Amino acid sequence: MKTTAAKIIVSSVVIVFTGVTAYSQTATSSPSPTQSPAATALPTPPPEQKAYDEARRIKEPEKKIEALEKVAKDYPDRFPAIQARGDVLDTLIKNYPTQTDRIRAAAERYLQPVPGLFITGPPFELSVANKLMDAGILLDWAEELAKKGETRFEDDNAKALRRQRARYYDTLGRIYLKQGKPKDAEKNLKLALAQEPDTPTALIALGQIAAGKGDQKAAVEYLSSAAVKMPLKKADKQLMETAYRATHNDSLAGLEDLLDSKYRNLNAGLHFDHYQPSTKRTSRTALSSTVGSEAWNSRDLKSRPH
Questions:
Q1: What is the DSSP string of 38-92?
Q2: Tens digits of per-residue pLDDT, 108-151?
Q3: How many angstroms separate the first and last alpha carbons of the chain?
Q4: How many Å apart are CA 121 and CA 9, to the nearest integer?
Q5: CA distance 128 to 96
Q6: Residue 103: CB partners within 8 Å, gap ≥ 6?
Q7: What's the mean per-residue pLDDT of the chain?
Q8: For labeling, which of 59, 76, 149, 175 is most exposed (least CB within 10 Å)?
Q9: What CA–CA distance (Å, rounded) separates 219 from 198?
Q10: Which residue has the higher pLDDT, 229 or 3?
Q11: How many angstroms separate the CA atoms of 225 and 208, rounded?
């Protein structure tokens, strides 16, 4: 299956697709008189988009809701599932405003994460709170959702700001390192880690600095921590192995176990089957099912870099 990445902006929310083929329809200019109909034909939408388009055109409320719910059930990890859930909620609010239990259940389904989609922008809690407020129903719950959405929004913004600061300090630190200013480099690289501890490029640069100062233990710690986050360049991998040998009687025994341990800690909360060594081993994999405000993944294979 061809893997693509795409962004779709819907109501100020950016939906980033990973691991699935995304469908988008772009506006085209009017065909010139010399163009044939075949030359201007739009691409055929994937089945999930076609099913959603057909469901939302249904006029009778109950039949429309039934069709939309089927779309969400049949294609749970695709973008139309989000659209279908939102349309179910809108249809219920518009046509059955007194059926608050049913509306709340639909809203809760709409708030559930969709596997495989990374979502940034205003939290869905704020969207649902606005819908309920406009309809004048479930106002106490709408208040709760609005407050929860604000907290999530502030937390997400704070995390994004920390990541940007980390990127700034990391870049500046590596510039200093290339300029031959290791003290300034180390200061800024550590500031980067203070903002975002999982910044691999900062870890690698600090490992290089530590090795240059003869602090082989620190070099192993920095470089091995980076190695489980991204593949090391050949020179950095050799530097890590040299530092490890220097602290382990000129042996690499135990290095793979150290890396495995760090990888497990990095993915704390995921289930790992006991690893069976083989001559054909190329990577370590873990089957993950995680849910969070920043990234929602289901049945996604994670591999420890080599």
A1: GGGPPPPPPHHHHHHHHHHT--SHHHHHHHHHHHHHH-TTSHHHHHHHHHHHHHH
A2: 999 887 766 666 667 889 999 999 999 999 999 999 999 998 88
A3: 25
A4: 10
A5: 16
A6: 89, 92, 93, 96, 97, 132, 137, 138
A7: 79
A8: 59
A9: 16
A10: 229
A11: 13
